[in-house]
Design goal:
Layout (H helix, E strand, L loop, with lengths): L5 H4 L2 H33 L2 H7 L1 H17 L1 H12 L3 H36 L4 H16 L1 H16 L4 H24 L3 H26 L15 H33 L3 H13 L1 H23 L3 H33 L7 H14 L3 H16 L4 H22 L5 H5 L1 H32 L2
Helix pairs in contact: 2-9, 2-13, 3-4, 3-7, 3-10, 4-6, 4-11, 5-6, 5-8, 5-11, 5-13, 6-7, 6-8, 7-10, 8-10, 9-10, 11-17, 12-15, 13-14, 13-16, 14-15, 14-16, 16-19, 17-19
């Protein structure tokens, strides 16, 4: 295995930033990927086509992919730990178990999606005029779900090994393939929803092939061999113990956001449009904050596996300082310029005023989420997933649902928006307390082992 690993031996802030920036750029291209999809179908097809690709379809896709991505966190945590510990045998077992998990999960979730999509769309009260196209889009998407899972897992494996650049290159290539195919199928062949679905399936398959080839031929640290792909049950159980809480957390997050969206819907079209526009603006913060979380998880996971606990603690402090600094800078920028950025998404003054008001309520609480993201990511990278998940579910999801139930009837949308910064405050306090509790326990363990 390679010995020159900057995550384990290099300057901490340089190691984190060298990993952070490719992840951030990749996240940007992922957003661009989705935005261009919507832009092309929105401009060259009818409104029903745009609603069928987004709307209920988007919620269902986010729910399924989010759950699986959370579930697969156990794979990447183990791989980063085994790589940091130079445990080649376990690393090989984890890699091939991860791929087997992706293939089985893609087939299972894909089949269930194809079968139950019409029922779920009706349960979500999707308008009848959108049912046919939404069903068509989702069934094609679920038919290629195995490619989505394989790419996401393969890219996560590469990041766990400290390679954040090649997943970025593959995502950029996939984005351009998708744009070309969208243009060909929708603009030229006029296939509308069918065209977007086919373009997505083919581009995802392309990215899955690229990342698989990379792990087979270009990665010395962990070489993928197709005939070795199978579930090692001991490894798989460890992965589930780490990943299942994250999967549950992701799915409950989706459900709580659906609940809040339903509450906002009761305030009318201007409120819904303002909320949508606001979400397009504050994606800047979530891209950066999430990228710091992934960087922290990889840095901590590898150093924890290598038993570099002092470096783990320094890395968490450094990453938190970076995340807090950028959160404060972005907050100042959005509070100053956010209103003008809303013009990119709407020209209606009343919608812009509503969106700007929502920004003023939410943005000042961004810095709180830095504590949640960095501490939770570092704890999961050390295999401590249950308590952070329970904190997130109770402090974020549970609080928001109860809050919205209490205040929706008040007739003031501000009360609904307040649930975000308030839930972040509660969760940040609980996560910080637990992080330092776990840190103290780890220090006591180290002292006991050293005989002091």
């Amino acid at each position: 295995m390679e010995q020159d690993n900057k995550i384990l031996t290099g300057t901490i802030w340089k190691a984190i930033l060298s990993f952070f920036f490719p992840i951030l750029i990749g996240t940007f291209f992922q957003q661009l990927y989705n935005t261009i999809d919507a832009a092309i179908v929105g401009h060259f097809a009818d409104a029903n086509a745009l609603s069928s690709v987004g709307g209920s379809s988007g919620v269902i896709i986010n729910f399924v992919v989010g759950f699986f991505t959370g579930l697969s966190a156990g794979c990447t945590v183990l791989i980063s730990q085994y790589y940091g510990a130079r445990d080649e045998k376990r690393l090989e077992a984890a890699l091939h178990t991860t791929y087997a998990f992706g293939i089985i999960g893609g087939i299972l979730f894909g089949s269930l999606g194809i079968i139950f999509v019409p029922s779920v769309l009706k349960l979500m009260k999707t308008p009848d005029v959108l049912l046919y196209q939404s069903t068509l889009y989702l069934r094609i998407y679920f038919a290629g779900l195995i490619f989505v899972f394989i790419y996401n897992l393969g890219a996560a494996v590469l990041r766990a090994l400290g390679d954040s650049k090649r997943p970025l290159y593959y995502l950029i290539a996939c984005t351009f393939v998708n744009i070309i195919l969208d243009t060909l199928f929708v603009v030229i062949f006029r296939l509308d929803v069918l065209g977007v679905a086919l373009a997505t399936l083919i581009s995802q398959a392309f990215s899955a092939v690229l990342v698989t080839y990379c792990l087979m031929a270009k990665t010395k640290e962990a070489k993928l061999v197709l005939k070795k792909i199978r579930l090692d049950m001991d490894t798989f159980i460890r992965m589930l113990r780490i990943g299942l809480p994250s999967g549950i957390q992701s799915s409950t997050y989706s459900l709580s956001n659906m609940f809040i969206q339903s509450a906002i819907n009761t305030f009318g079209v201007v409120a819904v449009a303002g909320w949508t526009a606001e979400s397009k603006v504050d994606v800047i913060f979530w891209m950066i904050n999430g990228s710091f979380g992934i960087a922290a998880a990889t840095f901590v996971g590898q150093n924890f596996g290598a038993n570099n606990m002092d470096r783990v603690r320094k890395g968490v402090r450094t990453c938190l300082a970076m995340a807090l600094t950028t959160a404060i800078i972005i907050s100042g920028f959005l509070l100053t310029a956010g209103k003008y950025m809303l013009w990119l998404f709407t020209t209606k003054p009343e919608v812009i005023e509503m969106g700007a008001h929502m920004i003023s309520l939410i943005v000042p609480g961004y810095f709180l989420f830095a504590f949640i993201e960095i501490f939770a990511s570092s704890l999961r990278a050390q295999g401590k997933t249950l308590i952070p998940t329970l904190i997130n579910i109770s402090g974020v999801v549970g609080f928001r649902v109860i809050w919205v139930m209490l205040f929706t009837s008040k007739g003031n949308i501000d009360f609904i928006i307040y649930c975000y910064p308030l839930s972040w405050f509660i969760c940040a306090v609980m996560m910080t307390v637990y992080y330092f509790y776990a840190r103290r326990r780890q220090l006591q363990k180290e002292l006991a082992l050293s005989g002091q």
